[in-house]
Amino acid sequence: MAMASGRVQLVTIRQQSLDLARWRVLWIAVGFAFVALLALTRIAYLGIGGEGARATSLEDALLPSRGQIVDRNGVPMARAFPAYALWFNPKAMGEDGAPLVGTPEGVAAKLKAIFPDLDQKEVAAQLASGKAGYIRKRLLPEEANRVHELGELALEMPTEEDRHYPQGKMAAHVLGYVAADGKGRVGMEQVFDDHLSSPLTRGTPVALSIDVRVQGALEDELRRGMKLTRAQGGAGIVLDVDTGEVIALASLPEFDPNKIDAEGEKLMFNRVTNQVYELGSTFKPLTVAAAIDSGMLRDLGRDFDASPVTVGRFTIRDSHKMDPEMNAVETLIHSSNTTTARIADELGAERLRRYMIDLGMNARPEIEIPARGFPIWPGDKWPRLTNMTVGFGHSIAVTPLHLASAYAAMVNGGVYRPATLKKLGPGEAPKGRRVFKASTSSRMRQMLRAISVYGTGRSADAPGYRVGGKTGSAEKPGGKAGYRRTALVSTFAAAFPMDRPRYVVIAMLDEPRGTLASSYQRTAAWNAAPIVGRLVPRIGPLIGVRPDDTRDIDISAITPLIPEAQDEAE
């Protein structure tokens, strides 16, 4: 009996265990079903409406938020780049908790140790205010690790896509930058803003005409020239004479597009495209070219009176003593104001004015960059004195880009083409407009070469590269006499190789000083011309011009007109 009772009890316990197991399985199944139902409901909600409007295409998912800018060889100059940012979130510890473990001052001091350029007081004030905001826009991974080690939850480091300029400050005035609103500013970032930001086009990089190798060399030599002469600024350009493509363009001092601050904003002014100067004697070859082209100057051996020219109460003089008479070739070699003024006077105001208009000197320079300076133009009717002074680069103020485009037309066969910062493919160069006859251009190439061999451009004569060019040293306006004698703009305008010109090079220094490096001289022959002399051998092989001492332009037709050449022959 007792045994039977034990069996019944055992069966009952077993049945209870099975029932409990079944209930547990049932509840687990119900739980899974509930979770699945929630998931299905969420999927259905998203499918019907919900957040479906934010769905992105495959292109949106794969493409950067902003397209690349590359140089003519495909080297990245601007790109979207994932980066850490340092964000202060005062609610990271909860609504009621203190935002920081340490004191604002203590945390700011620790951040200062990581970022030496940080404004410690400003950051401490921001942390004490309890207001959320950026502390720093861009962090390196190792910097992010050090911030994480501080143990402050309120210092968050979200990953954001940032605009990055891998070449640093190089070509800053060409590129511009992207502002906080995501829009391009100043340079080609602004010009191509729609292309770079549109999902339809941002996958295709924007190719500029710039060559970063040439750009780096130009900036380096300009910077060196500025330091040697303690100049307050510099500008330079390398221009393809046949297409108008800008191979390099530099304005110094430059800003850093990776870090736009108050100081950087002051440096955004572009000296090449936006600042106008009286570029002095670099205009003399243009005046002589106009005189030859018009038929006014048929005999290059004709002598002009080199004594001072008096017009009304003004007198035009040369900066140093010269021969009493000089022909047109000597005028350029020795850079005479007086004989150039007489050539311009005989040419006439209307004809010289017409050539200057054809060279674009009366309008903003032609290029894509928004910052383009308007020339100081003498107007529709030029008095006799104005015409004379324009002839040697005064009474008219233009940008260095104006000068580069004019020289390109003077040496390329006589055709003016607008400058461009876009890379052009074969056959894409604009037709341009004829300004000078091909014969005039050929003669001017000889004369420019003679200046570098026998005249003020000797220090730019890089062996094997057949450089030709003209110096210009102009006093800046101001002072009681109308000009500041102690403040010069020194310019050298050149082309190479002169037997088949391919590139124009302009180097300009703003207010250089007489130093030991320049033999205590402030004129372009001693400071701007040497920049070109150092630059051309650096960039020539990079852009297809190799040195060749066996070739040169034939200037034998004009050497009989050059006393220095005759002295060498003897």
TrEMBL record:
**Cross-referenced Pfam families, in alphabetical order?**
PBP_dimer, Transpeptidase
InterPro entries the record matches = Beta-lactam/transpept (IPR050515), Beta-lactam/transpept-like (IPR012338), PBP_dimer (IPR005311), PBP_dimer_sf (IPR036138), PCN-bd_Tpept (IPR001460)
- Protein's UniProt keywords contain Membrane: yes
Keyword Cell inner membrane attached: no
Please list the residue ranges annotated as the Penicillin-binding protein transpeptidase domain.
Answer: 235-520
Residue intervals of the Penicillin-binding protein dimerisation domain: 64-181
- Which Gene3D superfamilies does the entry mention? 3.30.450.330, DD-peptidase/beta-lactamase superfamily, Penicillin-binding protein 2a (Domain 2), Penicillin-binding protein 2a, domain 3
Q: Which UniProt keywords apply?
A: Carboxypeptidase, Hydrolase, Membrane, Protease, Transmembrane, Transmembrane helix
List where in the cell it is found: Membrane
Main localisation, per the record? membrane
Q: Where are the transmembrane segments?
A: 25-48
Can you name this protein? Answer: Penicillin-binding protein 2
Annotated source species:
Qipengyuania xiapuensis
Lineage of the organism: Bacteria, Pseudomonadati, Pseudomonadota, Alphaproteobacteria, Sphingomonadales
